[in-house]
Amino acid sequence: MKGYLFITGAFFVWSTWGIVVRWLGLPATEIIFFNALFASIFQGAWLAVRGRREGARLMPDIVPSLWLGFFGLVNLLSFIYALRTTTVAAALLTHYVAPVLVAVLAPLTVKDSVGGDTLAALAVAAAGLVFIFAGGLDFSDGRGIIGAASGTLSGLAYAAVILYSRALSPRNHPLKLSAVQAVLTVVIIGALIPWLKFNAPGPGRLAVIAVTSLFHSTLANVSYLKGIRSVTAQEAGVLGYFEPVLGITLAFIFLGEVPHPIALVGGALVIGSGISVIYRGGRGVSKTGGVL
Q1: What DSSP state is assigned to residue 289?
Q2: Whole-model pTM?
Q3: What is the pLDDT, as a whole number, of residue 61?
């Protein structure tokens, strides 16, 4: 039960990303760079104290840990870009095609089973994406389509994050995996700064990013990685559907965003397909972890 609570708690925190991104009003690369920079400091200090005491070794699984960090960066970068260019609902609903992709890929990576029901669910999810993309998502200049495409890319990367997390978490300290992702993000985006033309955020925005890095990128990340040790990849995927439900609700309350009915129909198809995967295809799956 603790694993489910750890993962659900992480998604409760992550559901506020839309509010944070809209308030900051900064380019996705700037948000992610400074967020990762603060997270590296927080996690480095935490790792130096608690990680050493608990035996968090760096070198084992370092290459797959770097892949986890890379897909985590792609996931967050494309997701935040989607939040900047389309509605919160569209970004979240396209992002959450990931659990169905996880169910299809799991037999090849973490040795979870997949059946005809899962393939049918994938078809339903694909139909849902068609509905979400229909009509440009209320953006007449085409940015809605670009944002939805970015949200879908984040879903693909998020599927890889789930699978790598599921495989690596049972044998690696969650602080190590999270810190590798933060440092890798700083290195990659930092190397691109001369071409990105960064403008340092003001003190108020930096403070918000620092708080976000503590809760969203440190505590929530570690909670998720700790929880997925005892939860299957499919179960972790379906628990993630708390995020779009809460995120869309918060966007309605604080941003006044009312989702387009067509987008909601598509989102219902995507979410329904994911739920069917976990309750049909995910039964009886071993919870010992896989080996990417």
Answers
A1: -
A2: 0.83
A3: 86
